[in-house]
Amino acid sequence: MSLYFDCIVESPISNAINTQIAWHPQATCLAVAAFSEEKGGAVNVYTGEGKLCDEVDIPPHPTAQVTSVTWHPSKRILAVGWETGELYLWNDHEHEFHEIQSLHRAPISILSFSAAGTRLVSADASGSLVGWRVDTSGNLQTVFTHELKDPLAQIVFRVTVATHPPSLDINGLARAAVSGDERALDIFSSWRPRTGHKRLGLGGNARENLNFFLGSSTGVLYHVSDSGNCVEVLQADGGIKRLLHHETRNLLVVITEGMVLGQFSVAVDGAVTEINKVKLSGRTNDIQVTWAGTGLLAVSTGDNNVRLWNLDSGDNYVLSLHGFSYRDQEYMMCLSYSENKKILCGGTNMGSVAMWKYEEQKLNNNEYSRDPEKDWKLQSPSILSGAVKRVAWGSAQNLLAVDTVRDVYILNEQNMVASYRDQVCVVQESPTQLSVDVFSADNHLEFRADIQVRGVHNTVDHLLIWNMKKMVIYEITSDATHLRVVGSFTCEAESAVLHEASIYSIEGSNVQVRSIQGTIKQTLSFTESEGEPIGLDVCSNFLVVATIQGIIKLWDLSRREAKPHTQGKHLIDAIKDFGEVISARCNCTGTRVSIAVAQTSLLPDPKLYIWDIENDNITYFNFASGRSEDDDNDGTAPPNSAESTSSKYGGGQERAKRETAREVGGRFVMSHMWDLEDPRLLVCEAKSLHSNKKQRENYLASEKEERPAIMLVSLFVSPDHGAIVQDAFPLTPNYSRLLGVQVPFLYLLNDSNVDKKSDTKAKLVTQKVMRDFVGLESCDKPTKEAMLNFSFYLSMGNMDDAFKAIKTIKSETVWENMARMCVKTKRLDVAALCLGNMGHARGARALRQAMKEPQLDARVAMLALQLNMVEEAEQLYRGCGRHDLVNRMYQDGGIWSKALETANENDRIHLRSTHYNYAKHLESKGDFSGAISHYEKSDTHRFEVPRMLFDELPTLEDYIMHTKDKSLRRWWAQYLESTGEMETALQFYEAARDHLSLVRVYCYCNNLQKAAEIANETGDRAACYHLARQYENVNLVKEAIHFFTRAQAYGNAIRICKENGYEDQLMNLALVAGPQEQIDAARFFSSSERRQLSKAVMLYHKAGLLSKAVDLAFKSGQVSAVGQIASELDESADPALIQRCAQYFISNGQFDRAVSLLITGRQYFDALDLCVEHNVWVTEELAEKFTLPKDESARNQILEKVAECAYAQENYKLATKKFTQAGNKVKAMKCLLKSGDTERIVYFANVCRQREIYIMAANYLQSLDWRKEPEIMKNIIQFYTRAKATGLLAGFYVACAQVEIDEYQNYEKAAGALNEAYKILTASNDHQSQERLPTVQYKLEKVKQYISIKRLFPSEGETGIRELQDMLLDPNIETAVCQGDIYATMIEYYVSNNNYKSALNLLQDMKSRLPKANPSYYIDAQALQSIARATGMNVGGAENGIEEGGSEEEGNASEEEVVEEEEEEDIRPQRHFALNGSAKFL
Description:
alpha+beta, five-stranded antiparallel sheet, 39% helix, 25% strand, disordered C terminus
């Protein structure tokens, strides 16, 4: 809870009227414009405390008043416009108030800075408009001017609409917290950092929009661009009174003097388009309007209501001044909204400052949509003197300025202070009003202080209050009936505590010890390294002080002077990521200090640290994980579930820890207090914090209900076990916060906003009994200590010591209270002992029976029920999902409305039984009408209602007459029939549509014609059967057959037909009858005197006796019937029958049908033999029929035989598929090679990954034109490499080299291929590879030698000739280098050097050595022609070129030579094929 402290500004001008107020957006500076007849107009700047700023000296204007005033958004620059048209500027850098030369000559009506302050716009009442550029030093330069000749009154800058507006994340909150941002820190706690420095904003650096709209008094709306281009965009009906621009949309709101509010969409160029218009109504035309959130417009028209209109959703609602001290005659005069505080403020004509705080409410279970009006909570008003003319929020501290024309007030929010010590509570109600509750004497006091209270502390007999200037001490009289002042003195203290007759106050960098009269008795000083004290606390006789540098010091106050109790503790060394101390508290014996700290980001640390002074170590309890230091493994959020079915010692402890972690975790410490008598008991106030909805949903993924915002967690702290949770319960909205702890009570501050209409003299503090002491509020000290020890040992899991602590207690109340504790701790073993000591036999029996339940919570809930803890039992049942037991609990308790609600929502399986039990309950109370309703809902009314009302037949008849239930009408008709009322019974049978009963009654009455009409009309089978039996009894055969047929009783109809010789009708009936009837009819046809075998075959076939049908068909020679029957045979048919039918098809040459039939009979091998023998084409569909499931043993054998059959039919694709399915991939590959499908061959080899298949694929690919298709060559190399076939790969490279030599004379590529082959053979240890290595090496050397010799010819031709001639002498040179190529190289060299004679000699030598060689194949055609021309000799092929080649004699070679050449050319592919290996299949 918070209060608003008001201070009046110290105006230097008396009898002045305030005309303008303006806050600086960040600095704590308030500019107030005033006017008086004596001194004229003036502008004064005040601090947040209402004092004049000494550095701001603005001289008054003797004759004119201020018409507009505005601050720069970030710099301390103040612009002031006067009614004379003068424009002045005050700059913080120069501290001077100087005039800005402008064109204004009329009163300046508009002064406005842009969002970032780079542009200032000024306008006056005559229509002069000036745009100024503001530099970094605050100097102004004119950008544009306009003379619009139109009185300008309103301005609004456009905003840059962000595509993705930023959301408030946890990091943003951290940055804001560092800067001291109120809103960010309110999310965490009421603590404010002392080490924060420069303020950081929450928003990003959005681009500034310098376009703006201007509104005139004549109703003209202008748009002015950033360059100064001014365009008229709208003519309104009346002068423009207000302009507002939507924060996140291109939406402009225009309000005219005629009370018309219009919405306009804004285009990029400033053009506006009307969306809608609304006529506002009110008691005056003085409309007040402001934004109250994004898209939320707050409007007041001079009454006591504020209308809120959401422009985005269209919702609108009203906030009214009802409650507190508002009067009926009050109405709103001004509005202002604080975005940081989410508070809408309004000033009234009677001096009230009304505030509505926005707090988003949670939806109840029965609510489907949010009521936004409930989110605004009316706060307690601040009452000032005089009508409130203006209100304005501003500065970084979110101060509120209130102008009452004569005075200006500054309202500053401060948390309401309160204190508790020794059963005395002091609570602040207003800035000067305090309430004192003395619980020991049950007295309540209220008094008004002489100062505005900013701090309070008390002892059992004294009360200390202070502000920043003064301290006042009151004495509480012994009878606790009144207070009297015993001390008052001036003191600037930040914080203070009271102990006995001494005051300990933080004053500057020291803690002063003062007497009650203010005399300084002692000074507790701190060194510069220790830092200034920022917080102190006293408990019993110990004082703890925390400094800004993270030092904790403790003093013993039990003596005359404060003595240090221990050395100071440096938290920076002991706590990781330490930022600042938030609060420190010590226990009553001075042995432990609990410390709440902030991290370096100034976010509160979720860990509560505990300094054990005796052992000088620091442990912690992590409220983020809900675990102590020993159990906190990772420090993360707690587990989402804690399921356990064990209630034994070890398992129970772990389960309790997990459930406690789930309940307590995910929080921050807000406050912590030690018990005033027990040094082990520490109570903390912990608040849940999740930065956004998504995190909250992820964290609560397994939670059945939403976690409470604030919880009170009591801990037992011991050196051996650390901090262990003893109890935890939510702090309900009825309470504001924790004030103090003193066993057996917790002292809670009530929320001032709850139950305001109740007695105003009621206590503001509630004594809440601790869980362990319910019923023991007035117990003696030994009992109190015993209960504390029991609770302590129980929390630690030490059951032996826990029982020892209470073994001397004989009070039944104590045992009952401990049993209640077991509901919270879920210790059923302890609960059983407690129930035994209580003598609660019924509860002990119920607990034993409940042990059969699988869920622990369900067992504990039964214990809670036996102890009359109904709410706890309901929570436990719901928590473990046992809504059926919740339902049963409500039924047993007679709470039928909740039982029905639970069954309807969560226990649908027991919904009908719940209605049935409730109907029984109502029947027992005599409420028959209610019972009937619930019997109907339980679907038991057909039996229960007649039973209930049987003694009241008129009521029962009336109920049946009005019901539409056929069963009830049939029952009533049967009852009437039993009494002999046939006519009435027939009516009810007809109403119930019970056709059988109608026919039965009519037959009983011998009205067979009416019965036949009903049976024919309705077709009811039971009615038709009954009527057919009646006709048979009277020997009406045709009618009996007809109705037996309608009843589908074909057996009876066939029986009558056989008995009476109706054979034609018999066949028709048999065809629609069942199998048994069909067999019966078939036997009749086959054995009758006139044997009708075709009909018998048909009926046997239709009845499923196929073997009998085939037998009969063969005997009677019905060939077509055999084929039809065979087509319907399946694998379940008799194999002999299948074989017989197959032989029939074979004999008729229908081999394909015979194969299909054999497959159907699973005679696969016979079917395959038939395919081979008679060349039945194996199609894809037929092959699939041969494919057995994978678990069949003969599957692979059959598949291989199918594949072989397909191979024989040259269906290689199908053969490949079946071999693959059979797992024989090698044969599959051979089939694939036969198909010649290169793409499939490559794919299959890559998929199979078998060496043999790789080799086969590579061998096949060699037979293709791999030189023209590099991808083929790549696959060949890849496959040989994967197969690790080094010899084959080397052979391929050798073949490549030979092709390059023979076909293309490309010895460079040949050398490369031979080099690769050489590398492969060298790296291989294979014997064959080593044998081939010398040959490959010889070829590589000779090719390289030939290449190197060819390179000599351009410079050393003769040397090259000699070396080539030497090569020709090698008898094996032809295996490496073609001799024709060697001769060609030498001849071409001589020709290039015009040595034709030598060239001719070499050519003749070539012909003699290579008689079968064609010179034109080796030698360039031009070279041959040159030789022929130079020597005059026919050298062969010179005239005809390369195409003809050779001499005329060679050109006319015999056919035998040509054939030999062709055979020679064919040698190469055959040689390559030998490398590939055989491609044969078998």
